[in-house]
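#structure-requests
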Amino acid sequence: MKLLPQKPFKLPVASLVWVILLGLAITGCQGQKFQEIAETAKPKVVSTSTIIADLVEQIGKQEVDSQGILQPGADPHVYEPVPSDSVAFEEADVIFYNGYNLEPGLIKLMNAAGIKAQKIAVGEAVKPLDFNYKGQKAPDPHVWGDAKNGIIMVNKIRDELIKISPEDESTFKQNAAILNANLERLDSWIKQQITTIPDNQRNLVTTHDAFQYYTKAYGLTMTGTLIGISTEEQPSAQTVKNLAEVIKKTKVPAIFAETTINPTLIKTVAEEAGVKLAPKPLYSDSIGAPGSEGDSYIKMLVANTNSIVQALGGKAGEFKTN
């Protein structure tokens, strides 16, 4: 059987036009989809400390992709960065950190080559109090101890978020205004609670020197600490003995451990001084774990105030946010 030669297949012109239009439509839809994804992508915000991360989340809420480096209870003074921290910094649009050398390891990593994100020292928006370190003055990084300073930090974060996501300005302003109103109320509440402590018992002794802003703002005397500003310091036996003697002379009714520092040495101080260790440690450089009484910036200040007031002989009332 003789096979007839095959004619080349030709698509009708109308069908060919339809195929071309369909391809263009698909390409156009994909391009539009990619554009929509780019337009709706949230700014990636990375925060070093848990305190700053909490403020960012309360101000930014669903409008930002917020990630915190430090976990609740972690000590920023001695934290050693891990590879995932570098990845987070490299992917960030903005990095919020405390500054005043609170988190030296993370600051060093953040300033490394290749990290192009905006770097904002939130704590450095506050005029610092000084401390003496090896005979020289340096800024105290624990600015959040004063709720008024918390407001300054909130405003700094708000303004920087507006810069990277101006379309969400009204949301950021509204969220910051609510937070600031609660901080104003908290500031007044703390002052009222401290006044319930007898005058001669308004003395604070803690593990490390993280409460200068708190004591100055709220009418307490920082009687002594086991170690200085940085938790890297290792107290000597003489330091423990000297602090115990100070406690005996001032007749402090209780001293305080901190959630981010091993309490063993401060317990030793309490035993040598013959004074009780307050039943609840203070939140110093970190908020508490989720579900704890100090799991937000406001709640940590409330929890600290309750602990201090009750241990030093006062009566603390309840604080509720709006």
